[in-house]
Amino acid sequence: MKTHSGPYLRSKSISAMLVVAAITGWIALEFGDPVSSQTPQSQSQLIAKGRNLFFNETFNGNGRTCGTCHPAANNLTIDPAFIAKLPPNDPLFVAEFVPALKENFEKPELMRKFGLILENLDGFDDLPNKFTMRGVPHTLGMRVSVNSQAGPRTGWSGDGAPGDGSLRSFATGAVIQHFTKTLNRVAGVDFRLPTEEELDAMEAFQLSLGRQTELSLPLPLKGEVIKRGQEIFMSNSLGKCNICHFNAGANANLPGPPVGNFNFDTGVENLPDQPGRLVNPNIPRDDGFGRPGDGTFNTPSLVEAADTSAFFHNNAVETIEGAVAFYNGDAFKNSPSGQFLASLDPNRIAIKLDATQVVAVAAFLRAINSLENIRQTTELLEFALNKNSPDGRNPNQLLDQAIREAFDSFRVLEGGGLQPAAVTHLKEAHRLAEKARGSWLSKKRLMREAIEALKRGREQLI
Fold first, then answer.
1. What's the per-residue H, E or C state across 352-365?
2. pLDDT of 196-237, one tens digit each?
3. Measured between alpha carbons, how far is 304 from 245 in angstroms, rounded to an integer?
4. CA gap 229, 358 in Å, rounded
5. Cα angle vertex 27, ends 22, 33, to 5°?
6. What is the domain-level CATH number for residue 455?
7. Predicted TM-score (pTM) above 0.85
8. Are residues 155 and 45 in the same domain?
9. Which domain holds residue 49?
10. Helix or strand or coil: residue 296?
C-alpha cells in the first residue's frame, strides 16, 4: 500500500523543529514489537495472507493493488524507468483509460516522467487546487522506521494513515485515495474498505519486509573513501547526518527520551528548478505534516536509499550524491533545520561539505546499501534451499527476488565506482542465482555457490 496517502485525521505534530538543545548525549532507541504476540506459525500464516492481499487484492476498486505502486520487482517503489516498461493497460495508468478518473485523480505526465503520484493530503473538497505530487517511498525496514514516541509515522509527511495513524490502518487511506472507481469515493460503491483481519495481515506483511534490526555504527568497513564517508556521516561537527538518521536509519538521535521517527523542515520545498515544477509550475506547495501542514516531513531510512531513488518527498533529486549535496545548498541552509544546526556550530555553519566529502558520504551509503542487499540475497537463497519461506513464497519465487537483490548489490557499488573486487564477486553471485533459477538437477548446488560468492563480496566491504 502506498506509504504517502492521506487526507485524514492527523496526530499533533511533535516537530516544532530541532529546538532540542545541544548535540550531545545521544541515545539509542528501543520500541516494542507491534506483532510480537503472534506465535511463529500463526505469524507466518498472517504474513503470507498479507502478502497475497498486498499484491493481489483490488478491494473492488479500479484494479490497483498495493503492489501497483510498491512492486516487489522494483524494491517496492516505482521510478520512471520502471514505469516506462509497464503495459499501457497497467492499473497504474487508470487516469489515462478510465473516463471517471481522467481529471484530478493523477497527473499522468508527471507520473511517467518523474514517478510522482497525486495526493489529496488536505481533503477532497477542492480537487483541482488542493493536492500535492509525491514520490513513492519503499516499504522496506518499516519495523525499525515507523514508530515514534508520539505515535506511528507513515508516509512522507508522517501522517499518512487515517484514525490512529498506525501502519495497520494505512490500507484504509490507500484504498480511499488510490483504489477508487470515481472521484465520489463512496465506500461500498467505488471500493470496499479492508476488514480488520485484512488490516492485521497487511501490517504483518509490511513489517516483515527488509531489515528487522538497526545497524550499529560505526561498522568496520573497507575502502578508504567509504571509511571516510562513515566518519563524516557520524561527525556532529562535519556531516551531522547521524543526528537525524541515527545508525543511518529513520530515527532521530536527540537529547532526552527516545523520540523515534521524527519530522523536520529541511527546506526541500524551496529547491529551485524542481523537476516536477519545470513541467507543471502550478503544482501546489506541499505543506507536510498536519492539516494545514507545518512544513515538516518525517525522516526516511538511509540504509536502503541508494537503490531506491529518486530522493525526497517530491523526487527532486535523482542520485544519492545529489541528495547528500542538497545539504550544502541555500534551501537547507535557510531552513529551520539548517538554521538550528548553524546555531550550534562555532562557525555558524549548518553543513558544508566539499565535493570529495559529498562523494565519500554517498560512497558510505552505497556500501551499506550493498551490504543490506547481500544480507537479503543470502537470506532468500537460504529460504529457497530449505523450502521454508516465512511469507508463503515457493523456491522459484524466492530465487526471483534473490536475483533482483543480487543485481542491486553490485549496481549500487558500480554507480559510485566502488570496490571493483566486491563487484566481481557479487556479479558472480547474480550469475549463479540466475543459472539456478533455470536449473533442475543443479539448483541447490548453484544456490550454495551463489551464497559463497556473496560471502566473498561481503568480505571486500566489511
1. CCCHHHHHHHHHHH
2. 999 999 999 999 999 999 999 999 999 999 999 999 999 999
3. 12
4. 8
5. 140
6. 1.20.120.660
7. yes
8. yes
9. 40-207
10. coil
